[in-house]
Amino acid sequence: RAISSLGMVVASNWTAGVNENVAVTAYDEFGNVAVNATSNIQLTPIASSSMQFAPVSGLLALSSGVATFGAQDTVAKSFMQIVAREVVLGTQALSKNLNVKHAAASSFAASEVILTGVTVNNIRNLAANVIDAYGNAVKDTSVTFTVIDSSNGGIIVSSSTVLTDSLGRAVVQYQAGSVVGVNTISAQSTI
To answer: What is the C-alpha to C-alpha distance for residues 129 and 142, in angstroms, rounded to an integer?
Structure first.
C-alpha cells in the first residue's frame, strides 16, 4: 500500500551534544503502519544550521514501515524543528518545537581578564563567564572569587561566591586597594 502520511516521535527537550532518537513511521490511507513500504525518508532541520543526523546524510530507507535516526545539536537554542519527507511522493511530517539546553559546565570562557584604568579605592564589577564544551553559556554554576594580590587592601565587597546568570556570567564587586599596583583575583568553580 502507498504511504499517505508520516508520523514522527522525538523528544522536545535536548541537551547540547547528546544524541536523540528520531523515529519516523509511515502510514497507509487506513492509518495502519505501512510495513511493506521501502521508501527513503529524508530529515532536514528547520532553524538550525548546527543539527547533525546519523546517518550524516539524514537519509534512511523504511524498515517495516519505520526509519529511526540519531540526531544532535551542539548549540543551545529554542524553537527549531525537523521535517521528515518521503523522497518519492513528498509526504511530510513536522516535529514539535525542539529546545536544546546547554551541556554541563566545562570551562571559563577566558583564562585571564586584564582590567586597566582602575582608580585607587575604586569599585569595579569583575565577571567570569562559564561555558560548556560547545561554547554555550551555562547558568546556575557556583563561582568563587578569591583575592590573591590586593595591592594594599583590595577586597571583594559583594559576596565572593555567586551563581552564573542565564548568560553564564558570575559577577562580583571588587574595591581596589589604596596603592597603585597589580590586583590579582582568581575565579574558581567545580566544573
So the answer is: 11
Q: What is the pTM of this model?
A: 0.81
Q: Using a CB cutoff of 8 Å and minimum separation of 24, what contacts does 104-109 make?
A: 104/132, 104/133, 104/138, 104/191, 105/130, 105/131, 105/132, 105/138, 105/141, 105/189, 105/191, 106/131, 106/132, 106/133, 106/191, 107/131, 107/133, 107/191, 108/187, 108/189, 108/191, 109/135, 109/168
152 Rama sector, left if φ>0, alpha if ψ -120 to 50, beta otherwise: left
Nearest partner of 88 among 183, 14, 184, 3, judged by Cα: 3
d(CA 5, CA 84): 11
Return the C-alpha cell found at 108.
571559563
Distance CA 182, CA 150 (A): 7
- Grid cell 565577571 is found at 127
Per-residue pLDDT tens over the stretch 126-144: 999 999 999 999 999 999 9
Quick check: 174 pLDDT over 70?
A: yes
The count of other CB atoms within 10 Å of the CB of residue 129 is: 20
